[in-house]
Design brief:
The complex is a heterodimer. Chain A has 2 domains: 87 residues, RNA polymerase sigma factor, region 2, helix turn helix motif (Rna Polymerase Sigma Factor, Chain: A, Orthogonal Bundle); 93 residues, Arc Repressor Mutant, subunit A, CATH 1.10.10. In chain A, 69% of the residues lie in helices and 0% in strands. Helix content of chain B is 70%, strand content 0%. Chain B is rod-shaped. Chain B has a domain of 88 residues. Chain B is mainly α. Classes of the chains: A mainly alpha, B mainly alpha.
Amino acid sequence: MNHQDDHQIITNIRAGDTQAYAVLVKRYERLVFSLALRMMKNREDAEEVAQDVFVKAYQALGGFKGDAKFSSWLYRITYNRSLDMLARKKRQPAFENTEAIADINLNEVENVLDHMERKAQQEMVQEAINQLEAEESFIVTVYYYKEHSVTEIAEITGLTESNVKIKLYRSRKKLFTLLQAMPAFNKKELL
Amino acid sequence: MKEDEKIERLGNKFLSDLPLENPSLNFSDKVMQQILKTQVDNSYFKYKPLINFWGWAAIFCIIGTVFTYSLINPNTGVTLPEFSWFTSKINGFSTFFSIKKMPQLSEALISVILIFSFMALLEISVIKRLFDRRATQ
């Protein structure tokens, strides 16, 4: 949608119009922040990462090749900066061992979600996404929000396409398993 | 329906239109402030030679001329009146303090030393002014 516009803005910035960068920041701040939040699981850290991403992107704008989407380039920086910060803080959010939960009733999950208010449904799904590991959350968000292809995600994350496919499948399965384990799914009146 | 197909369908149904999170209200202002600050910092630390290419070329031309002149005329040395005045003063200074062991310096060498001393003093004053100006930007 904004592909051409982004490139025009970048040309203006390279020509010395620093303030033009504010347009790009405004355009992508929500997505960059959301991706950072999904990985960091903490608003303060996510905001720090998102700011850092935009500053680093500005500094590296000279090296940005026009053959790629600016957004994909920005997501790659977000992914790498988030991983850097997680490594620096030497912490990974604690997750439940969902691998052990083998039985997943997808019909039940769908049924319960269908009976929920849209807002409550979204909140619950987001809560489950927040329980995924950083990389899994990132892949699921990029895949569904911007409808990036597996190939694009592979380019953003530096993983192979088959690896992305496997991670995407596992992440979604884990997500629905986490949803199924939530207290709201055990309330029979919702069924 | 297979499990993977069902997961794909449910993913499309429930994950496609999730709302995005909002950062703090002044997020973009903070980013732009940081960028402008970085730019000032970069300009402060960016390497700028005090003497540019043509400055160095002029200095080497002067030094080269003095040396060439002293090589062509080894006996006479530099005879410019200004340098003669300086060399006579320096020789007078060494005589006054009876520095007899010090080898007699040629006028050309003394001229070169004087030029370098002058350039060093000039550089110090220029550097100080330049850094003072950059620091207040």
